[in-house]
Amino acid sequence: MLSLVELTVTVLLLLPTLLAASAISASALADVQRGRRIRRLLRTFDEGLSVLGRGSMKAIYDHLKREYTLEREDVPARLGLFHTGLENMLGPKGAILVEKQIAKCMCSSLKLKYEERPTWDFASYVRAAMQKLKLR
């Protein structure tokens, strides 16, 4: 049986390892939580695009991947390219209508009030959603 002194020394020797393991666990947990929040944001993009129909949503994502090497998962980080791709497919007015629909879906999903703001573009709504999800 270990004496109190031996036990204390053992714990002190293991402490850095235990602290490192708990830091890794906290980091891994934060990564998992971030991944869930990103997936939630992506679902609002899907929901907004699906007003055009599931087939059209898939065609848009396929077009973005093929023409712009833009994967669905990268859309929130590359909104300018997303907008360009939508504009290319739907024209300027169609792109804006779809982006407004996505913004409305985001606000609804995140319990935010959707308000059309003349000075906000699509990226502004996405930034607000990301801030709400603590992705920024």
Essential attributes:
single chain, 136 residues, mainly alpha, Non-ribosomal Peptide Synthetase Peptidyl Carrier Protein, Chain A, 0% strand, elongated
The total count of helices amounts to 4
The biggest sheet amounts to:
none
Silhouette: elongated
Query: Helicity, in percent?
Result: over 70%
CATH fold type:
Non-ribosomal Peptide Synthetase Peptidyl Carrier Protein, Chain A
CATH architecture heading: Orthogonal Bundle
Briefly characterize the structure.
This protein is an all-alpha fold. Helices cover 76% and strands 0% of the residues.
Notes on the structure:
The chain has helices at residues 4-49, 54-68, 79-109, 122-132. The chain has 136 residues and is mainly alpha-helical. It has one domain (34-132): Orthogonal Bundle (Non-ribosomal Peptide Synthetase Peptidyl Carrier Protein, Chain A), CATH 1.10.1200.200. Helix 1 (4-49) packs across helix 3 (79-109), helix 2 (54-68) runs antiparallel to helix 3 (79-109) and helix 3 (79-109) packs across helix 4. The termini are far apart.
